[in-house]
Design goal:
It is a single chain. The chain is mainly alpha-helical. The protein has a domain at 1-134. 67% of the residues lie in helices and 3% in strands. A two-stranded antiparallel ribbon has the order 1-2. Helix 7 (137-148) packs antiparallel against helix 8 (155-175).
Length: 375
């Protein structure tokens, strides 16, 4: 997304917006995130001078979608709105705080908005997102299948399908086979839509990555390992073809490589690319962390430990130190050095207790304490 933003033609919005980028990991930003509860990155907001959310859009966008989102913000700020526009503004404000009431609010938006209303696709996607955030997995998947089936095959269509596909994956994780009957029907509708989204030239890379991930998970759930490997090979082939414009894009590609292998595959397949990236991004601790994770997965424990140490030498913040030390501890444990693994976990716990973000701090502390209990 940052690469797209750096090159997007947004001259017509000059003087209309103050642009603000917020980093989850910085302590000075936690007050913002305690009020505007982004469910993931990226999330975009249009916020007026009174601190009210006028528009809320989670997930990656194409450049045309970004301009449409900004136009929507301008219209709402200037009070040029229909009943559907006003309802969408209310729904977006509820979604920004993860309110369960957002679901009903978006349903009202779609009731008010005519079929040719320009903002209808955003409302359709946002309804599915609201269902996903409130863990209404069945309704989420079924709504995504219904709404996406009548949408133009652009990136908003892909985002809607992605949200529904994740609800299928999450329902399997949360409910096991209890959801089998409705899941079978939903998979039959959403899986073809996911493949259509992959075939659309308007689907941006972030959403392509999520489509491949969810399709791989579904294949694994069905014990179709050959299908998972086929999807992985196609996905990694696309990533290998990318010529990164900068370190941000290089990191994004490497993250996707690791995500693919963590679902299913051979870490040796991506280690050469990750090692090259670590050398290229000499001050990026995350590049070392990705190498460490895959060296460990490949059972190259000494190499994984060395990569963690390189990452720690790159002066990461508390979150980065915590992750590197947890990865190093796991490599030490698997190598057969439980005493050193425990000592490293204790260092990781100290780092985790300094993480600025409350949710990330609590999650890391809980995970490390569980590992210490079993160390």
């Amino acid at each position: 997304m940052r690469t797209m933003l750096a090159h997007a033609d947004l001259n017509r919005y000059a003087g209309q917006f103050v642009w603000l980028e917020m980093n989850f990991d910085k302590s000075e930003n936690q007050e913002f995130f305690s009020h505007f509860e982004a469910s993931g990155t990226p999330t975009f907001y249009v916020i007026n001078t009174e601190g009210k959310v006028l528009a809320d859009q989670p997930g990656a966008m194409s450049e045309p979608e970004l301009r449409a989102f900004l136009d929507r913000g301008v219209s709402l700020a200037q009070n040029r709105k229909t009943a559907a526009d006003a309802a969408l503004e209310r729904a977006d404000a509820l979604l920004s705080t993860k309110s369960p009431e957002a679901v009903a609010a978006y349903e009202e938006v779609l009731r008010l908005g005519p079929p040719d209303w320009p903002r209808r696709p955003f409302a359709q996607y946002s309804l599915v997102t609201a269902l996903q955030l409130n863990q209404q997995n069945q309704q989420c998947a079924e709504t995504a299948a219904r709404e996406a089936s009548v949408m133009k095959h652009d990136n908003t269509f892909a985002s809607t399908v992605v949200a529904g596909m994740w609800c299928l994956v999450q329902s399997k994780d949360a409910q096991g086979d209890a959801a089998a009957s409705w899941r079978t029907a939903a998979v039959g509708k959403l899986e073809p839509l996911a493949k259509q989204a992959l075939s659309s030239p308007e689907t941006v890379r972030d959403e392509r990555n999520e489509l491949y991930r969810t399709l791989m998970y579904l294949a694994i759930f069905r014990n179709e390992n050959a299908q998972a490997l086929m999807l992985e090979d196609k996905w990694l082939g696309e990533l290998d073809a990318v010529k990164p414009a900068d370190d941000e894009e290089r990191s994004a590609v490497d993250i996707a490589r690791v995500e693919a292998i963590q679902i299913y595959g051979d870490p040796e397949r991506i280690l050469p690319a990750l090692r090259t990236s670590e050398q290229t991004m000499a001050h990026n601790y995350n590049a070392s962390l990705r190498v460490a994770q895959m060296e460990k997965a490949a059972k190259h424990y000494d190499a994984g430990i060395a990569a963690c140490d390189r990452g720690l030498s790159r002066e990461p913040g508390a979150l980065g130190r915590s992750w590197l030390l947890q990865t190093k501890a796991d490599a030490l444990k698997q190598k057969g050095d439980p005493a050193e693994a425990r000592a490293t976990l204790e260092q990781a716990l100290k780092a985790a207790q300094e993480i600025p973000s409350q949710s990330q701090r609590e999650n890391n502390v809980r995970r490390i304490k569980l590992a210490l209990g079993g160390a």
